[in-house]
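Lab notebook, bench 4. Still working through the backlog of constructs that have no structural model yet. Next entry is a single chain of 187 residues. Request: give me the structure tokens for it.
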Amino acid sequence: MFTQLASTTRSLGCYLLAAPLLLALVLNSSCAQKVVAPVPTATVANSQATKMPTAIIYVDGQRQDSTALRKINPADIASINVVKGEAARAYAPTADKQGIIFVTTKQNQDRADVAAFNKSFPLTPATPAQNAAVAAIMAYMTKAYPTARLETVGPLEGSSDRYRATFKQSDQRRQLLFDGQGQPVKE
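Model written out:
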């Protein structure tokens, strides 16, 4: 066998030069300050205000601006109704683009002028019979289709005693028709 020298002077010289260079590189990178780019700031409220019109707001029958709506405590609100499109145009010609928000507070809901104003806008609350039918439909759907996700339950257009339930089951949208007592019917 041949015997080799353990290390040559040339090899030792490479190691002796590499060690200080590596040490200098490590120390230089750990002492460097991190550079952070400045974050641009923008005011969202100003940019959105120019793009879309604000809704027309009525609080207790009086037209208000959006600051009045922000001042109302949510616990003091009795009802909020939002009207858009053609129904909103009945109040203001440009309201179909903006929409109208009607807010009634608990403190003023029994006042005569507020009650008269609330009767004048085009929303009608559900009757007790409608509420009972919807509750029966929801109970039936929960029992008959426990894995389905119920999307809507509402009156069928053109019929006062028929209701439609729209739901999703196994990624398929389905619908059922019900009578006024909440029992399923065929078309």
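Notes after review: The radius of gyration is 35 Å. The longest strand covers residues 77-83. Flag for follow-up if needed.
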